[in-house]
Specification:
Blueprint: H1 16-27, H2 33-36, H3 43-57, E1 78-85, E2 91-97
Antiparallel strand pairs: 1-2
Length: 101
């Protein structure tokens, strides 16, 4: 799991634009070696993540040199269902996997 800090320029508070911009920025961040090689990621899951990265970059030659991104951890089609209030003012993004089209 990654933490996403949402910042706003709007004095009225955080907007949906701010939220989705922060999520996009987080998900398109390159992963570190520690993200891929730790006790929470099994060898099978790691292989799926690396394959997802290859599929994402297969049509864009210039992106093949970019490392695996956080979005690759989603592997396939994933739907964001919403947010769930957590502890200490934190929110959790709720997702579910969709069948491939």
């Amino acid at each position: 799991p990654w933490y996403i800090d949402v910042h706003t320029q709007n004095p009225a508070g955080v907007t949906l634009y701010d939220l989705f911009l922060a999520i996009r920025a987080c998900m398109f961040t390159p992963t570190s070696r520690e993200d891929l090689y730790n006790n929470l990621v099994s060898p099978e899951a790691r292989e799926q993540i690396l394959l997802a990265s290859q599929r994402r970059c297969s049509t864009q030659e210039e992106e093949r040199v970019v490392n695996t991104l956080r979005v690759d951890f989603l592997v396939d089609w994933v739907l964001m269902e919403g947010l769930k209030k957590g502890k200490d003012g934190m929110w959790e993004i709720r997702t579910r996997r969709l069948p491939k089209p």
